[in-house]
Specification:
Helix 7 packs across helix 8 and helix 12 packs across helix 13. The chain has 17 helices and 24 strands. By secondary structure, the chain is an alpha/beta fold. It has a seven-stranded mixed sheet with strand order 3-2-7-20-21-22-23, with no helix packed on it. The protein folds into two domains: about 300 residues, TIM Barrel (Alpha-Beta Barrel); about 90 residues, no CATH class. About 30% of the residues lie in helices and about 15% in strands.
């Protein structure tokens, strides 16, 4: 007898093809599509999906949940949206491999404003050990991409200097071994030390190893290059892709909130690269708000040496003066009155949640830079920021473009997280498809299922097809919506009653069943 039968729904299979009516049968963790009468097919349970869409589970190609999920395994902000697989290790910040637990813990501390903390102590070192942490312990499947920061820590250390030839060979070995251990490629976050200390040629050499092992290059580009031209950060990425031959993926790709240049310049860069024979894709999130760790605002020299150097700088009057000078003026960072902070843990700071740095400074009767430096020191580097980072007027062109897919870039902690943490996928379905008709529903689902599976290299998920894994979301296309806003971000979506992972019903009539069927998946371990 089959485990589950889903009948009456419109099957949109993830390929971009129009929907059709049929029955989805689940045998263990595997799908069979049945057309015609199904009354004679017995199953332990039947879900009547009449009036609903049955589609593959959504695959998030930009996730920051790899650590927080270990302490919050139900992972409700994402599973309630229909997300069944996530790619972690983004922005150059993966949490394997490391030589020692001490080095791993140092990196977690430096990055905690972006990826948070796992239950401590972290008890893995290798990629395979990290992926094993997700087997039958969390709601969803987790794939990992190797960040270049761990590779650089392994080969060079924490300092801002070029790699020697011997160190570069060590890093290339790290990339090769990590991919043999299950990583799907190489990621960079070229605004985040120590990975940002890598020069272009170093990244080309690491990408050659990535390409030879069947992976792809997933990049948060180098913002410091903007002084050389509007598209210079992405042109560096194209150079890396051309010279190494690696497939290239540009993450959170969009026009900035400042609206400099034309959004067609960005889109044309990708289209021209593909026309020249390159394999280039991108992802974007469907909100105007950006979000990251607020330490990204600090000069990179403060992290030349690791978290200890940063904490020293935050406490040094001379360094604080130098930081404020570097962050101000024409070449400085974004306005502090447009950076809304979250993830305060100390009771006396909780009242600052969701307020901008300048608002908090007014509350404290302090200079805004001193406020930021004091709070980072008090809160252990863990503050996160939400800001206006994207031009909302041109965002539909990126969301609807055929070479783009959806990635949430969601940060899973704080009282005022980015609203995309709870609403990324429903807002695509409700606003970009149903209300504004920027793209058809089958195409939107392709961008959230088979296209990211194709990019990551997942061979058996992302499509509803015989023999594929039973990761499924059932939603009401007429009523699915999100009410998450910047002012009230922690609101679950409506119109997504069922989510199934590896054949197990995880969300049942809108509630978590307590089942944790997730798996650590990757190269050599797709099953």
């Amino acid at each position: 007898m089959l485990d589950l039968k889903i009948s009456g729904g419109e099957i949109i299979d993830g390929t971009g093809s129009p929907g059709f009516f049929g029955t989805v049968l689940i045998d263990g963790d595997t799908v069979v599509i049945h057309r015609g009468d199904h009354d004679h097919i017995p199953a332990q349970r039947e879900i009547d999906a009449t009036g609903h869409v049955v589609s593959p589970g959504f695959i998030d190609v930009h996730s920051h949940a790899g650590l927080t999920m270990l302490g919050d395994p139900e992972h409700l902000p994402k599973i309630r949206q229909g997300v069944t697989t996530e790619l972690v290790g983004i922005d150059g910040n993966s949490f394997a491999p490391f030589k020692t637990q001490q080095e791993l813990h140092r990196f977690i501390e430096l990055d905690c404003g972006l990826n948070g903390w796992p239950p401590m102590p972290a008890d893995w070192l290798s990629v395979s050990e990290f992926l094993d942490k997700f087997n039958s312990t969390v709601s969803i499947n987790v794939a990992m991409i190797l960040g270049n920061s761990p590779a650089r820590i392994w080969g060079v250390g924490w300092n801002d200097r070029p790699a020697t030839p011997e160190e570069l060979e060590n890093m290339k070995s790290v990339v090769r071994e990590a991919m043999e251990d299950g990583a799907v490629g190489l990621s960079t976050g070229l605004d985040y030390p120590p990975g940002s200390f890598a020069d272009t040629q170093e990244l080309i050499e690491l990408s050659k190893v990535t390409m030879k092992n069947g992976g792809f290059y997933h990049t948060h580009t180098r913002a410091s290059l903007l002084s050389q031209g509007l598209l210079a950060p992405w042109e560096e990425s194209l150079e890396i892709g051309r010279d190494s031959g690696v497939p290239l993926h540009l993450t959170h790709y969009r026009q900035s909130a400042q609206g400099v240049g034309s959004h067609w310049d960005y889109i044309g860069l990708v289209e021209d690269a593909r026309d020249s024979g390159m394999d280039v894709t991108f992802d974007c999130y469907p909100y105007p708000y950006s979000g990251t760790r607020i330490t990204i605002a600090l000069p990179q020299w403060t992290m030349d040496g690791g978290p200890e150097r940063l904490k020293e700088a935050l406490r040094s009057p001379e360094d604080r003066k130098a930081m404020a000078s570097d962050m101000g003026g024409d070449g400085g960072w974004r306005k502090l009155d447009e950076q809304w902070l979250t993830n305060f843990n100390l009771p006396h700071n909780k009242g600052y949640e969701g307020h901008s740095i300048t608002e908090i400074a007014d509350m404290r009767g302090q200079d805004p830079f001193d406020t930021l430096f004091d709070l980072l020191d008090e809160e252990g580097l863990g503050l996160s920021t939400v800001s206006l980072g994207t031009n909302a007027q041109t965002l539909p062109a990126f969301v609807s473009h055929p070479y783009g897919m959806i990635g949430s870039d969601a940060i899973l902690f704080g009282d005022y997280p980015n609203p995309r943490t709870y609403g990324c996928y429903p807002v695509v379905l409700a606003e970009f498809v149903r209300a504004e008709k920027h793209l058809r529903l089958p195409e939107a689902i392709r961008k959230m299922t088979s296209f990211p599976a194709q990019r990551i290299g997942i061979p058996n998920r992302g499509i509803l097809r015989d023999g594929f894994k039973a990761d499924i979301v059932i939603f009401d296309k007429h009523n699915v919506k999100t009410r998450a806003t910047k002012q009230n971000p922690k609101v679950y979506p409506e119109g997504i009653p069922y989510v199934i992972v590896n054949g197990k019903v995880v969300i049942d009539e809108g509630k978590h069943t307590g089942v944790l069927p997730g798996r650590g998946i990757g190269r050599g371990r797709w099953n």
